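>> received
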Amino acid sequence: MEAKKIVTVGLAAVMAMSLAACGSGSSSSKGSVVSGSSSTGSSSGSSDFLSIEVGKTDTDLKGTVKFLTNRTDMLKDDYNGTSWKQYIEAFNKVYPNITIDVEGLTDYANDSLTRLQGGDWGDVMMIPAVVSADLPTYFEDLGSSDEISKLYNYTSGKTYQGEVYGIPITATTPGFVYNKKVFEQAGITSLPTTVDDFLKDLQAIKDKTDAIPLYTNYAAGWTNAKWDDVIGVTTTGDADYLNQKMLHTKDIFSDPGDGTGAYNVYKALYDAVKNGCTEDDFSTTDWESSKTKLNNGEIGCMMLGSWAVTQMQGAGDHPDDVGFMAFPMTVNGKQYVNANADYSFGINPDSKNLEAANIWVKWMTEQSNYSANEGGLAITKDGKSADFYKDMEDAGCVIEENAPAKSGEEDLLSDLNSESELNIGSIISAAPDKAF
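>> returned
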């Protein structure tokens, strides 16, 4: 795999560096390991992913599945949510003879790529940043996109030449996690739908409350790329824009003059900093403590994703004060929200426990309710989304996934990102154990 094709730097971070000089760091330590069942045995051979019926197919199967994840927080006994241990216990009620060994990597973005290329990673993993053309090299073909799309949502990102190689563990939308009480104290009676309104609201929070209006979490690194995530449907109202049209468009960062487009996304961040509506010292931001600060009203809002809602709610004594709003941009009278697949389950085609691996992924996506539990959208066609998405839809927001790249251009965005050194939607340092 060519090193240049692995995304490593964030555009929003590059722009933010012109606002202040600060640094970030990352950890490469490995998380702990927890096991599910204590039974032994093995299974081998191939398995048809689509034909598996959870709870009916081979419920007496024996085997061990090694699962590599970034969610090291879910390995901890004090995790404020459903832990991996609890998911495994529920799984073992249906498949008592399949052992699930979960290994968490704190620096998942980097260490998982090293493990993947070295072949020492196990049976199931959350697929890291590999180019589309490499998906068939590393992961099991789960079925054609025509077949998979009848059952699952948001699989286009892990599709190559009409075949699907990954099923999302969850899908989320980018936007702002905010404190409702802080907004009320600032006199804000309705959520902003334009960048200008958003900047006015930040100023009101600065003037009328003691909260930091917008906390950037700059030092974490990965948080800066969250601003890139809204480019596409949100900024244009066009699902084809990001992966198809943008690649052949000049001056994509010019101001369209109507408050839309990528220009106005970054203008929102630039102006917020210029107006003194962010934290004073970018170099000392702290991800873990920011969750508690937002929960208790010390922070007005943070640009993250809908996945962060449950974590902010669980970080203090005021869960009902935590809300989520779409990025404030209106295109032709409508507010659009990108629906993005998060990490996707990938299965090792060389697994000696291939059928057990397929069953684990099937159970997690179809039976565990993981996505809704973690603030995500429904992965299966008949699945459940977290409740707050209905609030967005009731407000008139259109939630839509960016369309996949055209055939033959699956890796064009990755190549352009790397060669231009802009790297839209990338990450600069590893996400912490409590982020996706």
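>> Residues 195-208 form the longest helix (14 residues).
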